[in-house]
Specification:
12 helices; alpha/beta; five-stranded mixed sheet; binds flavin-adenine dinucleotide; 33% helix; FAD/NAD(P)-binding domain
Length: 449
């Protein structure tokens, strides 16, 4: 071997050694009181409430913005804050929604008008970019530090609480805290800690929100011809059955929006998210190409697409109390009820669609603090879609106004627990309710014995 080739070989070996040592940059350790994981509708409210209560708070969010399904998933119509003619959910979530509507010069629905089973008429449409920016402003004003593009990789118990190791794009970080709040929608923190999570064998389908502009007078379009063509395209395998789960004319009148089902959509891990997003965008492409072949719709435009597929169901955490469908439809109240909830039972099925089951007149369900405490845990709360509930109750409890209210309650409990050096279940319920009320929340009164 000549000198040149041996020095080349040495350089190659050195290069391999150097490559083997290349690891993500480790950032300086952060110490705080409360870590909120997941910045969706629940996580925003949890973090703002915790920060406002004086706890040093860090919010870890895996994506590029806050809002979760409300923003990244394109489901920008939070509901329901009102029931039977009066407001039942307010607080930090309502403050954010109201600020967004006001800055956007938009209008709120008339909540005094009963809408019967047309509950969606009382949902509030929010401008997504404004909602994100205003949420970030509220988080900053509450002193919350946000870490985007990060997720916990490992969580260890410490004498004082927790050590959370996060992995992010290009770096890793260790955060120590006293209390953790799991607002991931999937109970990801509970899962990392080996706590029990519940899931069904067949998940409810997700939906991909995109916006079409037909660029034609739909009243002149033959609805039967359109539907026949759609059905034929499905039979021929050009389209898949749930590419449009509505009547096609209704889908066009609604500018497409969430008019499809994405089978088995999962947000609980990167592979699941990747598969759901690929399926969602392919479904959109199939529909768009199909519509352009329909006489009269040649000029249809794709004008918007949400960043990710909206996911309805993954894991639910099994908590100190599990809210059942019966509790929900009876509007049960407990001594530790921390907020109200309001929505029909809303179970979706890939083959059968959705047939909402509405609550009886006057019924307004509630959520006990124990449904936000994973069973057998200490120094940990859960809020939002993955709260402790059976499948049917969860199909109603997962809506955004309720996620916001449970998030605020969890943030308040976490901040008080951190201050008092206790686990959240030991925080005096009166103090917790007082803090929530001081921050604008509506809290169910104590149960009369
Ligand atoms: C198609 C569809 C239609 C719907 N319609 C309505 C409706 O009409 N009205 C209504 O109010 N609600 C509706 N919902 C329900 C509602 O939008 C969601 O259930 C709700 O937004 C969930 O809020 P969340 O904060 O619990 O979770 P998400 O909004 O899912 O937020 C969780 C956040 O956590 C982050 N995250 C997840 N894992 C990690 C991790 N390991 N580390 C860090 N971050 C993580 C995610 O990126 C996300 O930002 C609908 C849902 C779907 C899918």
């Amino acid at each position: 071997m000549d000198v040149k080739s041996s020095s080349l070989k040495l350089a190659a070996v050195l290069c391999c050694v150097m490559l083997a040592e290349v690891v993500a940059m480790e950032l300086p350790q952060v110490d705080c009181d409360v870590v909120v994981v997941g910045g969706g509708s629940a996580g925003i409210c949890a973090a703002v409430q915790s920060g406002r209560a004086g706890a040093k708070t860090v919010l870890i969010e895996a994506s590029h913005q806050v809002g979760g399904n409300t923003t990244t998933g394109g489901v920008n119509f939070p509901g329901l804050f009102h029931a039977w003619g009066k407001q039942v959910i307010a607080g930090i979530g309502w403050e954010l929604v109201a600020k967004t509507v006001a800055l956007d010069d938009a209008t709120m629905p008339d909540f005094t008008k009963p809408v019967g089973k047309a509950h969606s008429k009382h949902q509030v449409v929010v401008n997504i970019p404004l909602f994100v920016a205003l949420a970030e402003e509220m988080l900053a004003q509450a002193g919350v530090t946000i870490h985007y593009h990060a997720a916990p990789l490992r969580i260890e118990r410490t004498h004082e609480g927790w050590r959370v190791m996060t992995a992010a794009v290009g770096d890793t970080r260790t955060i120590t805290c006293k209390q953790l709040v799991d607002c991931t929608g999937n109970g990801a923190v509970a899962g990392l800690l080996g706590l029990e999570r519940l899931q069904e064998t067949e998940r409810q389908p997700g939906s991909f929100v995109y916006t079409l502009k037909p660029n034609t007078d739909l009243s002149k379009l033959n609805g039967k011809m359109l539907q026949d063509r759609y059905d034929a395209a499905v039979r021929d395998g050009i389209l898949q059955p749930n590419d449009c789960r509505w009547n096609v004319m209704h889908y066009l009148r609604e500018n497409a929006q969430a008019g499809n089902y994405i089978e088995g959509a999962d947000s609980s891990n990167a592979d699941g998210r990747t598969a759901a997003n690929l399926m969602g965008r392919q479904s959109m492409l199939r529909m768009f190409r199909f519509l352009k072949t329909v006489p009269g719709l040649e000029k249809v435009e794709l004008v918007g697409m949400s960043a990710e597929v909206g996911v309805r169901e993954t894991f639910r955490v099994n908590g100190e109390y599990l809210i059942t469908k019966q509790d929900y439809v009876d509007g049960r109240k407990w001594d530790d009820s921390v907020c109200y909830a309001f929505y029909p039972i809303d179970l979706h099925s890939q083959s059968k669609g959705v047939h909402p089951a509405h609550l009886r007149d006057g019924v307004v369900p509630t959520v006990p603090l124990r449904a936000l405490i994973p069973k057998g845990s200490t120094n940990l709360l859960v809020a939002g879609r993955c709260l402790s509930s059976d499948r049917e109750a969860n199909s109603a409890l997962r809506v955004q106004a309720t996620c916001m209210a449970t998030g605020q309650a969890a943030g308040a409990a976490a901040a008080l627990a951190a201050k008092q050096g206790v686990t959240p279940g030991k925080v005096p319920i009166g103090e917790l309710k007082a803090l929530l009320v001081a921050n604008g929340a509506i809290v169910p009164a104590a149960v009369r014995k």
